[in-house]
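Posting for a labmate who doesn't have an account.
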Amino acid sequence: MAAEWGDVDAMFMMGRCHQNGWGVPRDAREAARLFRLAAERGLPHAMYWLGGLLSDGADGLEPDFKQAAFWWRKGAALGNVDCMEGLAELLTEGKGCKADLRKAFAWWCKAMDAGSGHALFKVAYCYDEGRGVRKDKAKAHEIYLRLVELEVGVAAYNMAVNYYRGDGVPVNNELAAKYFSMAAEWGDVDAMFMMGRCHYNGWGVPKDYAQAAHWWRKGAESGDAGCMNEYALCLSNAEGVRRNRKLALAWWTKGAELDHVGCICNVGWAHFHGLGVARDYKKAVACFRRCLELEDDPVAAYNLGKRYYHGEGVGRSYAKALKYLHQSAAHGYPDAIATLGVMHAEGHGVPVDEAEALRLFRKAAALGAEEACYELARRYEKGHGVRKDMARAVSLYKQAADAGNASAKRALKRLGAS
């Protein structure tokens, strides 16, 4: 009734009722109509909510960024902080108006001065990245510290990243871990992922697989696909938790549904090796293909190349094996380089070329590929293509054996050097 009689606040509240379905049917169009009426009568928070509906295109409304920018600019001029922030976002993204990072920064500053914690973070981020203002890491760091005192997780995370990378501050893994831990405790999933990394690798904290698994599990339960992948690896490899390959596969599958390439590749790996599921080469190949559809992933390219090389889940094709192995090797993936060495040594899909094979084995061995270490060791033991050198052969056999190569272990036993 009050809205029909022209009460501006009542118009606004009826708009909110239609927007949310409070006591009336949810109706975005009616909400927008009422917000517009209140906005035209000068109500700033109606301008904000109208701009929000127009930018979101909620419930059948066509998005109209130009109109959203118009109303947020009007509301911002009247001192509405939410409108200032909305306008700054549109100016940053160039939606409904020409992109202008300097103007966006100016509006973030005005919103910050009006007391917005979100704008305070945005100002720090702009100084950190040099967006709309000259890059000033010291000023960004100062603001992040203020935000950390307010327990803003993303600020603690950004500080941690700066200490981790040495970006504007000296590299300090202990401080990086400290701020990652704060942000993780406050619910930042990116920080949970990094705390897992810190504990797994001993960066700034004692190496502790159980703690790594703890943080990755928390991140996984919060919906982060990267954490799902890492927690599943812990479950599959029994690192910090009891081995449970079925549960590992369940987490990889969940991450794969979010198009996380690592998870998709590991689902393929599980199907290929029969880890937590029946062995199925065709499903494995399908997963590796899906990875490559999403991005140029060297691990997926290597796995697909190997399947063509051995004819597992696909017809054997040395030509296709070479294609995918070269794709992987272009990223410096050691195992792909080693397999290319084998193909040159054996004449599989290419003419026999021992010199090229030797070059590829040396390159892959320097990157830690066990197969390449083993192949080089054989050559040094027999003097095949290189000067015979038993000490070098034994050293390379040991390197391959330490990485799990069974043939290298047998060679060491045969030579009495195990």
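Reply:
Got it, the structure tokens are right above this. The mean pLDDT is 95.
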